[in-house]
Please model this.
Amino acid sequence: MSIVSGYYYGGIIMTGSLQIKNGYFYAVLNFKDKEGKRKQKWVATELQERGNKRKAEQVLKDLIAEYEGLDYIEPSKKLFCDFLKEWVEMDKHNVQVTTYDGYVHMLNKHIYPYFKEKGIMLSKIKPMDIQKYYSVKLDEGLSPNTVIKHHGIIRTSLQYAVKTNLIKENIADLVDKPKKERYYASHYNLDELNKLFTVAKGTTIEPCIIIASFFGLRRSEVLGVKWESIDFENKLIKICNKVVRGKDKNGKLTSIELDKMKSETSFRTLPLCDTMLEYFKKVLEQQKNNAEIMGNSYIHKYDNYICVNAMGDLIKPDYVSDTFNTLLKKNGLRHIRYHDLRHSCASLLVSLGFNLVEIQQWLGHADFRITANTYSHVDMKEKFKMVDTLEKNLTL
Model:
């Protein structure tokens, strides 16, 4: 039995027919591949022959309409997890080194093992498969914000698959991603910062701590500050370079200098107070002394950088964070992340009366909403002043 139906599009007749096999209707779709050769695709309707002719005809029409206006898409025989891994490598040069490093971590630790075990093909991936993955990862304890990052990788990679005609549609658009949790930054108050400066004195990461706390710089920006960035005469510091974590060809963690900042707003010039000017002069003098003491053993490759160790080697990003955590624990200080020194600077500026627009420019935030969402809640003293004013002016 053969019931033929067809649609005309783009100069090509796409036809389909109903065939009966083992008592069930099958829709047979006729396509042309990229070389113009005719191909067939059999689709099981799961409808029995008896009493379902009209339903089967409608299924056939729906299938043909689904492919109307599209070239034939050859079903990919590639596993979804393998496609993801290939896409991450292809996209490597379009993103920051730290972004790529994050992609690789999320892929290798979470996404790839899960879908590898499932054995789902790229051409067979369904919204429910992605939705179930998110549910499993949330049950394992990952935060909604982290799973949202996984969603970003999956969706962007599938968008590439659509663009390159590997799949018909991006099924990630049909998935409900977790709701983003509002982030509340941890920070040190003024007393805690002063205690930190005391215990950090003379350590390798002392300059890293001082610079981050005074200027609210990101870790990569702190490590990227060079002596040429310091204008001693005009009392200015330019934030224009960064050093980020990366891996060499052997997979070993290393530091990579990048001159390209995250955004235009990250390039900024900040004023220097007399205290910081004197501090930088002291650090420079110490580096010169270290070079003299170490002689030929001293590494001069990074002479232009401020954050180097006693041997002149550039301080690695992970070393800063690890040593910072050890320093806090050793001296009984409340645990915060090294990045929270940036938040501590911002919070201190809020408490001193500076508005969020000024703080946005100081921190180099590209979007004011980032500043507002992160720091609008930190100064509870101002809120008490507001409620006191209301109490004095309102009579119950």
Summary: Residues 1-12 have pLDDT under 50 and may be disordered. Strands lie at 3-9, 12-21, 24-32, 38-48, 230-231, 236-239, 242-247, 253-258, 268-271.
